[in-house]
């Protein structure tokens, strides 16, 4: 009963966080592990549970989605598909013990990216970093999508940072494209996970609706939070706490 409540609560809270500022995986992944799911299965199930939120957010931003820089929108989506597939395939090849050993470092990377992301984007805009060419743009998008297919934590802020490096400047367009690519690469990864039997379906059927409901509430709250810096600081603190906990396990 406690595990059921923890999964529902983590999913609902993660949906709110993802809609407002990101970082929901810092709650869903540990909750699934502590409820008894093996780390690889917990990672796959957390990705599946986040997918409805990505899709609804992408739909909400549908009028703003466009590509900037050297690649077309179709090319950007193909890079996301390729990276998501490679990342999911790499996860399938990673032994459970090896992935468990990597988890604290992945959480540390995701937390650092989440905390530093806004500062990096602001720095890139101030310095007017020139847009990358097609080859560099494609390689960067495939690389961050590979990370997303392997471990979903911190994906959104990593995508935004890469967009900044590629010369994107329209914030609404960047947010819309971030949600669309998160959905696209997650679909590819989740199909791979399902085929490999990695999804914990009882947990997923509890968490996905809770995450979706939290996402709707988060979209409402996002327009009413006066200072996003406090929220981002709280999410970063959660990420730090989860990272320390997994290093100590």
TrEMBL record:
It is a multi-pass membrane protein. It is found in: Cell membrane. The chain crosses the membrane at residues 45-61, 73-93, 105-124, 155-173, 180-199, 230-248. Its main location: membrane. Keywords: Cell membrane, Membrane, Transmembrane, Transmembrane helix, Transport. Belongs to the 4-toluene sulfonate uptake permease (TSUP) (TC 2.A.102) family. This is Probable membrane transporter protein.
